[in-house]
Specification:
The structure is a single chain. The chain is α+β, with helices and mostly antiparallel strands and about 325 residues long. It is built from seven helices and 14 strands. The longest helix is centred in the C-terminal third of the chain and has 14 residues, at about 270-285.
Length: about 325
């Protein structure tokens, strides 16, 4: 449990003309450096009261109310140490930077990963990282899985962080992922829409659900087809945990090599005995899910201009594609 050092207090006296606005949206727009995720967490933990009573994040303001907000402030823990780990920096200025994260690197310290993370490397690179509501995540605006490679956006100050986070919340950023998946698609492009919830059988993974979890939207388009696999590009309308991996697996097109969602077993193919040896060779090349966050476009809140970045596929995915082509 984090120790609260000081608390900021805010009071909003709502007039009768302000109504039917979700309280999490209202507070995100009226508190400097706030993100919607942070506000929702404050509400859930009882730091937000309406007329002296706690509410839920989806509570709609009724007008003529008093909203009191307490904002706990926690220091960055001393236990997160800077480590001299190489970083591939695609872009950097005084306010943010773009990093091309390699597969196998955890984004921030967590249970079982106290060192060797991207945050440890960032702390060695710069002393300027935004403070967040999660003490182990300085500068981290968004995340990708440990074994997913690709572009990540890092903030150096709280205001820049909050503005970038709002773009993620509003889904106004441009993000494109590339993946090698099992099978050939009936349609060359399409949208996958379903709820995603944590699995009741294994709490470490997620699954599609009819009546639980949160709605997720993934758009896919086939780039190239092989004998029993496809190279696809994907765009996210939402950003749920493991979203791409869960959605593709639900279509029986799991990402090649994915250990958690069926990507390490033969899903499509002809002569099983002949195919098995080839697939095993390919899985040695790709011991992780073949998924890469390839592009990232956003509006720079300080420079007031749009920026767009693209990264090459990592060597393991390049080799996998070459082998699938028969090169």
């Amino acid at each position: 449990m984090n120790k609260i050092i000081t608390e900021k207090e805010r009071r909003f006296e709502i007039d009768k003309g302000t109504k039917n606005i979700r309280i999490d949206v209202f507070l995100t727009n009226h508190i400097e450096n706030a993100t919607r995720t942070k506000i929702q967490k404050l509400i859930k933990e009882g730091y937000v009261l309406v007329n002296g009573k706690p509410v839920k994040p989806n509570y709609k303001i009724a007008g003529e109310e008093i909203i009191d907000v307490r904002i706990p402030v926690t220091p960055r823990p001393e236990k997160i140490e800077a480590e001299d780990i190489p970083l591939e920096i695609i872009y950097e200025d005084d306010y943010l930077l773009i990093v091309n994260k390699p597969a196998g690197m955890v984004v921030h310290p967590a249970l079982g990963h106290s060192s060797g993370t991207l945050v440890n490397a960032l702390l060695n690179h710069t002393a300027n990282l935004s403070k967040t509501d999660e003490e182990t995540r300085p500068g981290i605006v968004h995340r990708i899985d440990k074994d997913t490679s690709g572009l990540l956006l890092i903030a150096k100050d709280e205001w820049t962080h909050s503005q970038l986070a709002k773009q993620f919340s509003a889904h106004t950023l441009q993000r494109e992922y590339w993946a090698v998946v099992w099978g050939l698609f009936k349609e060359q492009k399409g949208e996958i829409t379903s709820n995603i919830a944590r699995s009741k059988k294994d709490r470490k993974i997620f699954t599609v659900s009819e009546n639980e979890g949160k709605t997720a939207h993934t758009f896919y388009e086939v780039i190239e087809e092989f004998e029993f696999a496809s190279l696809v590009k994907l765009h996210l309308k939402t950003g749920r945990t493991h979203q791409i991996r869960v959605h593709l697996s639900s279509l029986n097109h799991p990402i090649f090599g994915d250990p958690n969602y069926g990507g390490r077993r033969i899903v499509y193919g002809g002569d099983l005995a002949k195919l098995k040896a080839r697939v095993n060779n390919l899985l040695e090349i790709m011991p992780r899910q073949a998924l890469h966050a390839k592009t990232l476009g956003f509006f720079h809140p300080r420079l007031k201009k749009d920026l767009f970045f693209s990264s090459e596929l990592p060597e393991d995915m390049k080799l996998l594609i070459e082998k699938l082509r028969g090169d």
